[in-house]
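pinning this so it doesn't scroll away 📌
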Amino acid sequence: MMSKEERLASEGRVKILRFYPSMKELYIVVGRMNEYVVNLDPPFCTCEDFFFKLTQKKEKKCVHIKALEIALRDKSCEVFILNDEEMDQIFKYLVLDLLRK
């Protein structure tokens, strides 16, 4: 039986937004309820589970961070190529979306 993070990675729910020419990348994991912004170094995720695990010092990685690690390892991420000019608009959308939660 597959773990949640293996299922997220294998179902293609890990997305990379790659901006050119800067080559900056933004990682998004599509969960059951929302889309989450994820980072590996330092580990970070916009999900509530990450926040509570971090503040309670239980675990440093949520299922979305683990899914990103698996998808990068297996090269199963869906990659979207965007221009650097689009970066500001993407970040504004993500911040507004986070504030609505």
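📌 and the second one:
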Amino acid sequence: MYSLNSNLNNHLKIWLLALLALIILVILVGGLTRLTDSGLSITTWELFVGFLPPLTNDKWKDYFDLYKTIPEYSEQNSNMSLSEFKVIFWWEWGHRQLGRLIGLSVMMPLIFFSIKNGFVCLSQQDVKSLVYFLKSASVKYFLFNNLL
């Protein structure tokens, strides 16, 4: 496959198959998120604290109040209850968690395999460039979502 080391090749196959499964899953969850109109239920992108869902009733009310400020609520869901909001929130939250998991599932093994240097891999400069690119893309995505 990528190396003369068959053990490493097996690890790479497992990694790539797991990524394939995660990508298929995120496409399915993304489609269901879209079909249920859940995509705007989380109105802010909280990169580091957003992985925890609301744990108290007050937090749920805060998230619901934020949702009430966007046009989707007033134009489409103005009679939505908190329990109905929770349903669409969970779809969007799960979709975002899958995105985070995929990011980690790409980066961590990539770094591991690159450091192991058991196959033709990226140089340290290539890894640094990739990390820089991902950081800048994350910052741009964050700014784009918070400024528009």
